[in-house]
Amino acid sequence: MASLLIHNIGMLATATGSAAKAGAAQGEICILRNAYVAVQGDTITAVGEGAFPQAFLTEGCTLIDAQGKLLTAGLVDAHTHLVFGGWREDELALKLHGVPYLDILAQGGGILSTVRATRKASEDELYDKTAKALDTMLSYGTTTCEAKSGYGLDTETELKQLRAIRVLNGSHPVDLVPTFLGAHAVPEEYRDNRAGYVRLVCEEMIPAAAGEGLAKFCDVFCETGVFSAGETRTILEAGLRHGLRPKIHADEIDAIGGSQLAREVGAVSCEHLIACPPEGIAAMAAAGTVACLLPATSFYLGAAYAPARAMVDAGVPVALATDFNPGSCPCLNMQLVMSLGCLKYRLTPEEVLTAVTLNGAAAAGLADTVGSLEPGKLGDLVIWEAEDLDYLCYRLGSNLARTVVKRGAVFTNHTEGVMGPEGERNG
């Protein structure tokens, strides 16, 4: 029996398993033709080729004809700065004139500008704004999303962001994974007291976030002029003492030891990695740390691209994500990220699919429940307006998500960004 049955799938493409895939295995995906998927409640119960068993078609079952199109698992966006006040369109002119990001930050712009706007915003305002972003993400095929704090830089506002994430996780179809990023920058009031701010993060913010169960991970921006490798270690070890698993913003601009530190602290993921050195790649491969790469950020900033091909070849599991944020990448479109993964990282469509599904799920600590189309996994799926995986990655900038299924609930893209119910009920 099934509550949802999708049939006449021209190509079903999926990674397999419940752990990140690395090396050659990242490009080894399962392809089924003329396939079907059965979902009962919120869970996949059967995947197969050919005609579906008639026993699945019980009264009340929603039947969807995929019309020979491509079906994949729902996309997992494993790195976003989803909750914030304001925007930063005023920085576009500075970027066009070649002002480096760290110079914008030093002038009180960048992250610090968003901090001021986020501190002023109410939790309800943050909720409403973020819910609209999630609606758009769902329309593009994203069904699971990691969401960081980091625009408060004080205890009250960091908790306000994390509480908004918790409420949204309970009310919006997209599942959210919360990450505490109080160490995103040193706030203006601590500019001359870095050590004091690190103590605040370790002794007040982390215990408060963990005490309310508001975060699953602890992240640090390990970068020149932000937090050193030593400070990063101190903060991540404090997070571990309170049950928060480590992530690291590492080697985005300068290689100052963040990717090497990943092995020492057992980081689940290292993120950005544009300037990652060979020793950092080796450390991540040895630790099984997921490299979460952000090609749309490189594109938006006109920056170099992370050495993704070298990472895959070295046995590092690679995930791709949007890095959605108001400054360096105001992009919600994981399909664009997939195209850039092929064009700029030279990854194959198969490697890209694994990067935006199973490996993204692993970076979010959810590879056992999402990221592939297998019985026992959540019913998160996308029917694409494409007949194969190559076409999906080839169509730069188009929204090809036709039908999105989240935990067995069906949404249709009637127009871009507007999702509605689809399917005919049997009986």
Short description:
The chain is α/β, with parallel strands linked by helices. The chain has helices at 92-96, 101-106, 111-120, 123-139, 155-171, 194-211, 229-241, 258-265, 278-287, 295-301, 308-313, 334-343, 349-356, 358-363, 389-394, and strands at 4-14, 30-40, 43-49, 62-65, 70-73, 75-77, 142-148, 175-183, 217-222, 245-250, 269-272, 290-293, 318-320, 381-384, 401-406, 409-415, 418-420, 424-425.
Number of helices: 15
Give the strand content: 15-25%
Mean pLDDT: 95
Largest sheet properties: 10 strands, mixed
Share of helix among residues? 25-40%
Summing up helix and strand content along with how strands pair, one would put the structural category as: alpha/beta
Low-pLDDT stretches: 415-427
Shape: globular
State Rg: 21 Å
Distance between the termini: 13 Å
How many strands? 18
Textual characterization of the structure:
The protein is of the alpha/beta class. It is built from 15 helices and 18 strands. The chain has helices at 92-96, 101-106, 111-120, 123-139, 155-171, 194-211, 229-241, 258-265, 278-287, 295-301, 308-313, 334-343, 349-356, 358-363, 389-394; strands at residues 4-14, 30-40, 43-49, 62-65, 70-73, 75-77, 142-148, 175-183, 217-222, 245-250, 269-272, 290-293, 318-320, 381-384, 401-406, 409-415, 418-420, 424-425. The strands form two sheets. Strands 1, 2, 3, 4, 5, 14, 15, 16, 17 and 18 form a ten-stranded mixed β-sheet that branches. Helix 7 links the parallel strand 9 (217-222) and strand 10. Helix 5 (155-171) runs parallel beside helix 6 (194-211), helix 6 runs parallel beside helix 7 and helix 12 (334-343) packs antiparallel against helix 13 (349-356). The longest helix is centred in the middle third of the chain and has 18 residues, at 194-211. The protein starts with a strand and ends with a strand. Mean pLDDT is 95; it is low at 415-427.
